[in-house]
TrEMBL record:
<dbReference type="Pfam" id="PF03959">
    <property type="entry name" value="FSH1"/>
</dbReference>
<dbReference type="InterPro" id="IPR029058">
    <property type="entry name" value="AB_hydrolase_fold"/>
</dbReference>
<protein>
    <recommendedName>
        <fullName>Serine hydrolase domain-containing protein</fullName>
    </recommendedName>
</protein>
<feature type="domain" description="Serine hydrolase">
    <location>
        <begin position="13"/>
        <end position="204"/>
    </location>
</feature>
<dbReference type="InterPro" id="IPR005645">
    <property type="entry name" value="FSH-like_dom"/>
</dbReference>
Amino acid sequence: MGSMEKQEQFEQRKPRFLCLHGFRTSGEIMKKQIHKWPESVLNKMDLVFVDASFPAEGKSDVEGIFDPPYFEWFQFNKEFSEYRNFDECLAYIEDCMIKHGPIDGFVGFSQGAILSAALPGLQAKGIALKKVPKIKFLIIIGGAKFKSSSVAEMAYSSPIDCVSLHFLGETDFLKPHGIKLLESFVNPVTIHHPKGHTVPRLDEKSLELMLSFLDRIQKKLSVDEPSSIEEEEMTAV
């Protein structure tokens, strides 16, 4: 095998993200939403799309726009302060991370974004994701904090030192909550877009920010995890 072929075989892997979709949608729907982004962005990520833990228990807001089936990560009351099946949801996400690993981070939208933003804190406290490596990267689209004090105390009590990118929509009903969420993160990167509660297309400025963020995490991944060819050379010494 030539050195070029060997280099290609052991090329540094892309960051792998588990994608957590919105309430009463699906992994397939999120795939369609994310694929509005250009190839220059998509080619820098290894994206894994999964359906949430439970079939939708009620009508989906995307009915008539996207085909069923629809799923939800957990259930909640009207005030979003009490949750049902939350522990089962966390266990399910961990199983997905083991099955599709190594997972470096999450891309979350809506209910999936709220979950994604809380998971590093819950992991750091030993509440969730105990069997998988530390979450390194987050892309949060239309996110917010959990309102339940028991979850919030565990998720946000310490600054979240996780490389993160946050999309804030100008007319998104969750925008004020998304801004509040930023306070819990160390050096978050933000992309503002003119749309509402949606996965937005990328304009020139947001594309530049996105590519810069992806280059940054690729470098971090390369430092944290030397490529196989480097490991092989070190072993041979």
